[in-house]
Amino acid sequence: xxxxxxxxxxDPHKLSKVDYSGRVGHTCNxxxxxxxxxxxxxxxxxxxxxxxxxxxxxxxxxxxxxxxWHHLKLSRIPPTSSDSATRWCCDMCMEPFPPGSFAYRCVGxxxxxxxxxxxxxxxxxxxxxxxxxxxxxxxxxxxxVCRENLPIWxxxxxxxxxxxxxxxxxxxxxxxGAEQGSAGQGNSSSPQPEPQTQQGTTTADQTTSGSQxxxxxxxxxxxxxxxxxxxxxxxAIDATTGGLGSPLIEILAQALG
Length: 257
What we know:
Low-confidence stretches: 174-220
Shape: elongated
Number of domains: 3
Number of strands: 12
Largest sheet: 4 strands, antiparallel
Number of helices: 5
Radius of gyration: 19 Å
Order of helices and strands: EEEEHEEEEEEEEHHHH
Strand content: 15-25%
C-alpha cells in the first residue's frame, strides 16, 4: 500500500496513512501490537488502526491446517458485556479475545483463531528433539519440557517417540521474567520424563490446566509475537510463506522493541 488513502475490507471507510512516530496509545486492531513509531492506516470515525504491513499480510480469508474444512474470514468478535456468560477464546492457544477484536472465524463451526496464531507453523524442528519433525496436532498429554498439562493444540513428534511439547516450550529457550508461569512451573528447558496422565482427567480439564500452564502475566499478543520471533518459528514461517511473512516478522520485532 503506497497511497495516502486506502480501502480495507475490515473498515467501511477510506483509511488515511499515518506516521505514528510520537503517537502513543494506538494499537493495531488486527495483530494487537503497538503502532508507535511505525507506519500504518487509521479511520478516525471508527477509531480503527492497522499496521501498513498487517493491512497487506492478513487477507480477508485464509485456509488453515487447524480447520481444513472451511475458509476462515477475518471479522470482529461480537462485543460482550463484562457479566456475559459468553467468552470468546482462540481455538488454538485457548486465550480469550478482547471484546470487539478481530479473529479469523468460521461462524458455522464456531471456530475462532487469533490472526497471529495463524502464523504458527504446522511443522517445526526443535533443538529439544532434533531427530524428527514436530507437527501441530490436537491431542492430550503433558509437556515433556515443563511437565504441565497441554492445551488442545500442541507439537507432537511425527515419529513414534511420543514427544509432545507446548508451543511456548518448543524452541528450547528458557522463559525469562514475566514470561514464566507461577513458581515451579516451566522453569526447565531440558526435557523431563513424561508422567502418566491421571485417570479420569477429562479433555476439558486438561485444556484448562494446559492453558493456565502457558498463561503469563502479559498480553496474549505480546506472548504469541515473541514466540514467532524465535529462530525456529521464524525459519519455518519464512519457508512456508516463501519469504512473504518476513516483513510482518520485522514489524513484530520493531513493535516489541
